[in-house]
Each structure stands twice: as structure tokens, then as C-alpha cells.
Amino acid sequence: MKTYQEMSKEELTQELTALKAEYEKIKGMGLALDMSRGKPGADQLDLSMGMLDVLDSKTALKSENGTDLRNYGVLDGIPEAKKLIADVIGTKPENVIIYGNSSLNIMYDQVARAEMFGICGNTPWCKLDKVKFLCPVPGYDRHFAITETFGIEMINIPMTENGPDMDLVEKYVNNDETVKGIWCVPKYSNPQGVVYSDETVRRFAALKPAAADFRIFWDNAYVVHHLYKEDQAQILDILEECKKAGNPDMVFEFCSTSKVSFPGSGIAAIASSETNIADIKKRLTIQTIGHDKINQLRHVKFFKNVDGIKAHMEKQADLIRPKFELVEKIFSDELASRGIGTWMHPLGGYFISFEAPEGCAKEIVSKCKEAGVVLTGAGSPFPYKKDPKDSVIRIAPTYPSLAELEQAANVFVVVVRMVAAEKFLAEK
Amino acid sequence: MKTYQEMSKEELTQELTALKAEYEKIKGMGLALDMSRGKPGADQLDLSMGMLDVLDSKTALKSENGTDLRNYGVLDGIPEAKKLIADVIGTKPENVIIYGNSSLNIMYDQVARAEMFGICGNTPWCKLDKVKFLCPVPGYDRHFAITETFGIEMINIPMTENGPDMDLVEKYVNNDETVKGIWCVPKYSNPQGVVYSDETVRRFAALKPAAADFRIFWDNAYVVHHLYKEDQAQILDILEECKKAGNPDMVFEFCSTSKVSFPGSGIAAIASSETNIADIKKRLTIQTIGHDKINQLRHVKFFKNVDGIKAHMEKQADLIRPKFELVEKIFSDELASRGIGTWMHPLGGYFISFEAPEGCAKEIVSKCKEAGVVLTGAGSPFPYKKDPKDSVIRIAPTYPSLAELEQAANVFVVVVRMVAAEKFLAEK
């Protein structure tokens, strides 16, 4: 098959005419499909329904240390939930605070408290003229929304296949004391599926920040979200690496069971150094009396331990792996073969990050919408929703059924071909 | 029986000697009792255990509008939970946002967002030189902790039997634009059990605040927490009264099921005007994807409707009413009869607010502690923990068993008598 780069003007014209006809036909079908949402499918959620049976009116709702979990108290989580989450992310229970249902809320809180009260005695960020965050791109739109809402200046850091461009990260962090944080999704990054290499993690740990209150916001959202049994990424424990490098307080690590049990009804946690945990608890005790301990117990009883979570995630992987493979196959056959799009092959996480020819993403998303296929907005994976190359489109394959996904992906590839053909033709 | 005021120096000396001997005997008993905690007793929590049976793996976890409650989404609560809470506090579902497990956390968030972003387009409080809150006293220590943590200046407003001293409230609110809020527990106030009269509520609604962003923080914590079937307080709907008075946006109302179902595993809510709700949601959508919808459904299925909640609360009242009555009887027999203490007879809520002779509260709390009876710290019900008269002691009768409570109350009255006798003697 000829790539679009190789096609003559005539060939491209012919291709475009055929694609336009096909597109019109698709538009007439009245489709209503959605590849925008990073949500588990109903079949994945079905796997957690047993969680509703592990507690009943006969259960003694006591923690292993005897606390009555039905009553007030326990600011930082019940011991058995701390252990479970610590084992999941590979740290110690004493480094963990269990919150409510949302790790995003914990991240917002961390930024909000830094703004209002400062981190560990440092100047509150709201008193500073300028606060900057580094944002590896493409990244997670809700991270960027938090920093944007506080008026924090966001700086794009390009991603490589090993993680963020560390030369650039070091340049900023080690020299600019207005740089106070960086958003990271170290394993199966949103949206590319990048796994941070050991070297990347070690370079993070070895940073020499100009700002005493610089923190790495380490969103380990996909820590157990492998797609393949035989090819599971492991990343180094950033807390441990930072400690070894003499930067014990440099990291806030986040995780949740949102895409393990039930989104919205899971448990979320932060892990950090003893000093940071004490700093957080000093304020947290004003914010709340405690989080939902019964739901913490429910999770512990259902999963039992980290192996239970891993086994559960294998079942989920069996459900979503075919979806990822289907999309990748259609993209390979229809787009890569024509030289009009690239992506990284993800080994886990929730997304495929498709890179269209430059200047095409917005048009593709818009044309797909017209044809009844909703995609994540072009630009979403970038600060201020501005993709400098107008190229990245985040594909979320988990929520639709396989049949819907096939239909949606087939519409998508026709639209990409049409928009790319137009672009290449205009440049001839 | 003679009151201490009526006793001669000799009689008081004799009384004190006897009490000191009794106190020493009590100290020798090695008691470990606690009347400090506003927590439900285990028997109250037992009443909610059925809540763990209303959902199981066979339940369709759908909202009445078809939403899959197991997945992401629904920022402001499922419709049936909004209706339940609206009926409890007497407002409309569209005025309600259902949150997670803690109304305290909602209040903190409201103050935090006002500080960081301002209310409805007004200047963020953190940019102002001075922000003040009115604090009816005695009041709830955790309210005061929130305003203190933000450096908000707190002004004591004396409570009357009809609510806060409204002359003073009007004077401050209508003339001082740095006064941005007031903490209210309008029904069965913490700790006195005061019920705001209709006139008080109407005077609140008719305020003419100097500050456009003045808000009443209306913590309707004990809305269904009656002690008696035949004597249940009703207060006017502040949202409706404010609307009628032309101040539709002046109130944030809070409530939760913390002392209805399970503290820590209940649902909490804010109710406010359409304008305020829209202002809140604009930021809330950055903070979180949504709260625990399955727990919302669990509450709706268990209680069914507001009548279900009322019936449930009657059962709780049957358990705690004898505790309140026991404490009041011992106080009447041993203290009121001797002229050394007053309190209001509460018809609901969680506390009895004992007022010792001036200058005695700290000493009483300290001497009780020495004898193995823990009380809420003297000063706690006041901003900055400073009781100007050193008189108020908050008694929490719900958590101990009746037998423990009787023992604790009997120690308490001996200590009050001893400390009061010493004081009266010193003044002879």
C-alpha cells in the first residue's frame, strides 16, 4: 500500500473523492458512538459486584485494632486498608493516608493547601508573584485543570518513550525557584501509556530543586492496570529512590481503586514521607473528622490483599485487552500503513494516544462528531487545551462494547484519512 | 437544701472537707470514663446495620433516571438522594448538592473557596486585609477551628434562649463589610440545645449585610435529632425566608446523616440558592469527578423517605433520652438544688451545656480528669478556646452506657461541688 506521502496529486485527489463519499454515507447512518470516556465498561464493573456481599448486618464492623468502624474517628485510614494500598504501590503503611473516593480530590487538596498555607512551613503559594508547574505532554486534562484554576503557570515538557524529557525537567526544577511542582503519571501514562524508565525515576529522585517546596505530584493511577499477563511494567518506588537520593520529602504519590473496584465508590490515598504526612494531617484534622471507614473495610474484605487485586485486574484485562487490540489493528491496517498516524503500543492504562499529521486533530475530532462519533476534545491532553501541533487525539477504548468500538474506530480511520488526504493535497 | 450562696463560712468549710474526702476516695477507684465525645453509642449504630443488607451483588445499581451508579459521573448527587435530603431539611431538590461523608468538610470547602476564589465573583477573602466571622457562643469547636485556621477574626455573639443576640448580629452584619459570615446551629444548637425562634430566623433573613458576600453558615446538624416524640422543635426554612426577604443568596445550609446512619459512612449535603449552587459547581467540577453514589443509593434504599428517617430517629431517641434524663436529674438533685450550676433543658441534639459558677470550668475539667472522668476541654465551645467567664462545660451523654454515665455524672457533681465550695469560701 502506498503511503499518502508517496501518492501523486492525482492519486490523492481520487482517494479524497472516494473518502468524502464514504464519509457522507456514514453521516447518513445516524450513529451515536463514544470513544471519549476513560470509564470502565459495565462488564468490568460486574466483576466487583461481590463487594456488595462482603459486609452485611451480621458483620462485626471492627478494625483489626478493635476500632468500631461505624463511629467517628480515624483520620488517616484503618490499618488494614493502609497496608493494602501500601502493598499496591510498594511502600510502607505509615507513609499512607487513606481518603475518600477520589484521588483527584486529594491532588486538588494538596495544591489548595500549598496555596493557602504553604508546604511544611514554606510561604503559601498565593503570596508569591509567580508559581509554575511542569506538565509533561500529552498528559491528563484534569491535572491541568487543577493548576489552571489556581492561576499556576503551566510549562509543557515533551514526553519521550521513557518518560518526561529529563534534561528539560532538571533545567527548570534545579534553576527556577518559581517551579513548585510537576504532574506525573509514571506508569501507563495518560494518554500515551508511557512507562517511566528506571533512569527517569532516578533522575527525578536526584533533582536538586531551587525551591524548598518543590514537589513531584506522582499520580500512580494505573499501578495495577496491566493489559498483558506476560509483559507487566514495573517502575521503581519513587519514595524510596528520593529517600536514597537525600530528597525524602520531594514526592506526593497518589492512587485509588477507582478503576479497580467502582469509580466514585472506591478508596483513594496519598503516600509521602513522614514529614509531609505530618504536615498534611495538621490541616486535614481541621477539614474532616475522617473518611468512610466502612468502605475501606469493604475493599479489604473483598480483595483480601494485593494478590487479590492483581487477580481481579487480570480479569479486567481479559475484558479490555481485545478492545485495545481491535483499535490498534484497525489503526495499523488503515492508518499506519498509509503513513498518516502514529501511537505507542500501550501495555496498560486506559488510553491510546493517536498522533495525527500536524494540524489535523481538531478537524478530525470535529468531523467525527458530525458523523456521530464523540472523541475527547483535541487539545485536551495539553495545558490550556492547546496542542501546539494540533496532532494528539486521546482514544478511550474501554467503555464501548467491542461491536460499538469496531464501528467507531472504522469511522475514525475514514475521517483521519479524509482530513489527512486534504492536508497532503493542499501541500502538493 | 441550702444553696452555697446561703451557707455560712463554717458550713462551706465542712462541706468542702467532706467533698475533698469523697474526691480522694473516687480518685482511688481508678475510673476511666468519658463524657467528652459527641458520638452515638453502639446501640444507636446497631439500628443502622440493616443498611448493609439493602444492596447486594444482585441489586441493579441504577439511579431512578437510569444512571449506572457504579461508574464515574454525577457531580451533585443522584436525584433520589437529593430528594431525601431536601425533604429532611425542608427545601427543594434543585437547591441541594450531595457530597461525600462529611458536612464539616463541605463547610471547610466553602470557606476555603471563598478564601481562594471569592464567592460569586467577589474578591477572594485572602486578598482582603481583614475578614471576620460572628460566632454565637457557646458554639461548635470545629466551626471555630475552620475559621481560625484561615486567620479569620472571630467575634463572640452571646446566645439567648431564642438564638444568637440578634441586635448584635444586625449591628455587625449591617455595618461592617469585613464581616463575611456567621456560624449557626439553628436547631438544638451545639452545645446548648437552643432552637432558633421564628423571629430569630426572620431577623436573619432580613439582614442588610454591608458585605455583598456575607453568608450565613447554617449548620442544620440536628434537624431530625429530637429527644421527645411530643415536643419536637420546628424551625423556619431559612432559604425560603431569605428569598422572601430579598436575600436569596445569603445562606449556605449544611446537613448530614452522620448521626442518623453511620458517622464517617453517611452522606452530607449543602443547600443553597440557584446562584450559589452554580458558583459552587463551577469549582467543584475541578475538585472531583463525583461523590460516592452507591452510598447515596444505600441510604435511599434503607430509609426510603423522610418518614423512614424520622421513624429511625425515634428509635435512636428512645436509646439516648434516658441518658439525657439521667444526667439532668443528677445535676438537678446535686447542683441546681445547691445553686451551683445551670443549663438549658435540651429537647434534641447531642449535648447538655453546663454553666458552672464563673471561674470554675477549667478547674472542674482538670479535677474530673484526675479522677478518671474525661470531659470536653473547658473553653472548647468558644473561639480561640477562650471562655471569657470560664464557666461552660459541654457534657456529651450519648456515647457511654447508662451505668457508666451515672458513675461519670456522680463524679462530675462531686467535683463541681468541691470546686464551687472552694470558690465560694474564698469569696467569703
Topology:
Two copies of one chain form a homodimer.
Chain A: H1 9-27, E1 33-34, H2 42-46, H3 79-89, E2 96-98, H4 103-117, E3 132-137, H5 141-149, E4 153-160, E5 163-164, H6 166-175, E6 179-184, H7 198-205, E7 215-219, H8 238-244, E8 251-256, E9 268-271, H9 274-287, H10 293-303, H11 306-334, E10 352-355, H12 361-370, E11 373-374, E12 392-395, H13 402-427
Parallel strand pairs in A: 1-11, 3-4, 3-6, 6-7, 7-8
Antiparallel strand pairs in A: 2-9, 4-5, 8-9, 10-12
Helix pairs in contact in A: 1-13, 4-5, 7-8, 11-13, 12-13
Provide an overview of this structure.
2 copies of one chain form a homodimer. Chain A starts with 8 loop residues before the first helix and ends with a helix. Chain A folds into 2 domains: 9-44 and 310-427, Aspartate Aminotransferase, domain 1 (Alpha-Beta Complex), CATH 3.90.1150.10; 61-304, Type I PLP-dependent aspartate aminotransferase-like (Major domain) (Aspartate Aminotransferase, domain 2), CATH 3.40.640. Chain A contains 13 helices and 12 strands. Chain A is of the alpha/beta class. In chain A, helix 8 links the parallel strand 7 and strand 8. In chain A, the strands form 3 sheets. Chain A has an 8-stranded mixed β-sheet with strand order 2-9-8-7-6-3-4-5, sandwiched between helices. A two-stranded parallel sheet of chain A has the order 1-11. The mean pLDDT of chain A is 97. Helix content of chain A is 41%, strand content 12%. At the A-B interface, helix 4, helix 5, helix 9 and helix 10 of A face helix 4, helix 5, helix 9 and helix 10 of B. Chains A, B: This is GntR family transcriptional regulator protein. Chains A, B: It comes from Roseburia faecis. Chains A, B: One of its GO terms (molecular function) is L-aspartate:2-oxoglutarate aminotransferase activity. Chains A, B: InterPro entries: AspAT_Ic, PyrdxlP-dep_Trfase, PyrdxlP-dep_Trfase_major, PyrdxlP-dep_Trfase_small. Chains A, B: It holds the Pfam family Asp_aminotransf.
